[in-house]
Amino acid sequence: MGARDLRHVVGAGLGAILLLSCTTTGGDARGPDSGSSSGFTTRYEEPSAADQEPATFLRNRKLPETAAEALNTLVAPDRQIVLVSRSCDGEGSAYDPQTRHIELCYDDTAEDRELFQKAGHHPADDEAAAIATETLYHEAGHALIDLLDIPLTSRQEEDAADQFAALMLLRTGPTGERQLRTAAEAYELSAAANTTVDTSGRDEHAPDLTRAANHLCYLYGSAPTRNQDLATTGRIPSMRAIGCGREWAQAHTAWMARLQPLLRKQ
Ligand SMILES: [Zn+2]
């Protein structure tokens, strides 16, 4: 998940320009795969030769389509936000506020699969799918914060985007719970693989291990009975586990309050 993090740093400032320059298909958000002119839609760009496999995987699993549908079930934004799957050549998945594109990188999905394969998971299809889905929801959190013009510091926004990813996954019940658990594991694996600590101060995200712990706390706080092992094995420290129900309730309430203007009328 390292590449994704890097891209956020880039996307936050100077990179907005770089981001635009590497978006090869121009500003027209409506592609052959998108269904309507508002809300979350999807589009696939032609993958590079190296990215054929992850591109086929994302298409076959319909991961962007499924995420877009889940997002559109919750909210009804009056603008179009396009989930663009594309080859990013290592730049990392990101949300681009200039184009309102969420860019999901084929190469990130390949990297995520490799991360899990190195940890002994084969073929790691479900793991790769979980991380792509969590990434799409994290970036959708950025898109909604942008659309709602919510004033947050960079770090607050990153934490809120992680909480939005948790919210979307937890809305889908046990499958989403498994995917949130997998996302936490990816942060743990990523932390173990990246032993050098970034001291540049350029990464707005919490450290990977903190992000893993937060996801696990939200998971446990949301569904303690099904995830009892997280507390009993000490994966969540007992002092924190006690408060996870409250932590998750606060994060969930904060997001539902923010989303109020966009919530789809049931
Ligand atoms: Zn982010």
How many beta strands in the DSSP annotation? 4
Taking pLDDT < 50 over at least 5 consecutive residues as the criterion, the unreliable ranges are 5-34
Ligands bound, unique:
zinc ion
Total number of domains: 1
The oligomeric state is single chain
Radius of gyration: 17 Å
Mean pLDDT reading: 88
β-strand percent reads 5-15%
Distance linking N and C termini = 36 Å
What does the secondary structure layout of this molecule look like, with pairings?
Layout: H1 2-12, H2 15-21, E1 39-44, H3 52-61, H4 63-74, E2 80-86, E3 94-96, E4 101-105, H5 106-118, H6 125-148, H7 154-170, H8 174-193, H9 208-222, H10 228-232, H11 238-241, H12 244-259
Parallel strand pairs: 1-2, 2-4
Antiparallel strand pairs: 3-4
Helix pairs in contact: 1-2, 3-5, 4-6, 5-6, 6-7, 6-8, 7-8, 7-9, 8-9, 9-12
The structure holds zinc ion.
Structural account:
With 266 residues, this protein is an alpha/beta fold. The protein has one domain (2-262). The chain has helices at 2-12, 15-21, 52-61, 63-74, 106-118, 125-148, 154-170, 174-193, 208-222, 228-232, 238-241, 244-259; strands at 39-44, 80-86, 94-96, 101-105. Strands 1-2-4-3 form a 4-stranded mixed sheet, sandwiched between helices. The longest helix is centred in the middle third of the chain and has 24 residues, at 125-148. The N and C termini lie far apart (36 Å). Mean pLDDT is 88; it is low at 5-34. Bound molecules: zinc ion. Residues 8, 138, 142, 158, 161 line the site of zinc ion (ZN).
